[in-house]
Amino acid sequence: MFPGIITTDGDKFREECGVLGIYSPGSDIAQLACFGLYALQHRGQESAGIAVSDGRKVRVEKGMGLVSEVFADQSRLARLEGFMGVGHVRYSTMGSSLLVNAQPLVFRYRNGYLAVAHNGNLVNGHELRFDLEAGGSIFQTTTDSELIAHLVARSGETDVEAAVRQAVPVLKGAYTFILMTEDKLLGLRDPYGIRPLSLGKTANGYVLASETCAFDTVGAEFIRDIEPGELVVIDGSGVKSTRVFPNGKQALCIFEFIYFARPDSNLHGRNVHLVRKQLGKRLAIEQPVEADIVTGVPDSSLSAATGVAEQLGLPYEMGFIKNRYIGRTFIQPSQEVRTLGVKLKLNPVRQIVKGKRVIMVDDSIVRGTTSMRIIEMLRNAGAREVHVRISSPPVTSSCFYGIDTSSAGELIGARLDVESIARTIGADSLGYLSHEGMLDSMGLPQDSFCTACFSGSYPVEISSRGKFLFEENKEDDGRCGGCGVHV
Prior knowledge:
This protein has about 475 residues and is α+β, with helices and mostly antiparallel strands. It is built from 19 helices and 27 strands.
């Protein structure tokens, strides 16, 4: 993070990015893309951008900050005229939070323009970058996202679809790419489908997006999820689908259901809110406790909290009010102000929690620092007991696939047992959902998910050197949690 700034969501995973592609002749592409990015804003709050093609040239407008900040000046959207576009919202960390790394990235090479929007992380990005630089490639950014542009440019193919098919087999990791030339829109998902991507249809064309909630915003109808290893090409003749990789094991990141995705999104035919509610019900069965009320930590835990309350027959109460207007970060001029971080974000409702035995439901505990502060806030507001229930298993391993996790040594679930964690965060009791209970609640085949952060079993192999470089960069706060940034 920037020096002097803290994130009020410091005890959460921070994911990745949101990508959007629209092919819709006759529509106001820039405005539609802007609306779509608003729907995906939860996936990244540090930069936003839109690139649009008019068939001859690709123009891009991007900047640091929220969508509402980057495109507050409507003249920026007015400059983006065309019939298709690519949008991106991004999360990153120190060293990578620069305008040059904001996406979409737009390049011009011998075959024309190429715009790139990327969500995920390449576990062999260091090696690929080294090899390309040794061969004379000059990188404009510090992101893994630029790698595909260099590979496409060096492929020797004049057709972009053929160039992509030739380039992507060397990529290892989790990725969703949306690419745009002057006349084609391409969507690509990694062989395991770790990162999500869906296809929708508008009256005039098609939409690709990280989550289906964006379809509702731009007036598109959901068609289907893009399959793992699938490449779709959208142009004037419609949608063409090819498979770059053979059918293999699917491993959607399970945290999409637990935390990342918006509750109104659907993944693999399952509504995120309903899955989270089922997680809460199973949690209540596995970890019951006598209490007076149930409350959730806004926003991602509210669905699970309603499931806990319903299963236990307890009232669900709004125990916290979330301040939605301070953004994700704020200046911390002193240690005193630093400790007030969570209080600026969340405020307990004293009249609700005072004198009560409270079940506080959250989706995960990463480092434990924020949980400790929230529990302290509840006690200061008069809560008689605070019982913490977590709608996922303990997080014990780092993610190498584009999620900004702490290094393994910072994960409280990797260092302490449950009773010790409860004492550390100040809870009267602590209960996690079991790994089996989590998978059972999904309503999908249990081998459909990546659960590496809980199990340490990684679907995409990463070398020991790759892990070392990841952890080394994490300690220097130089790894992007969304687009594989290196510094």
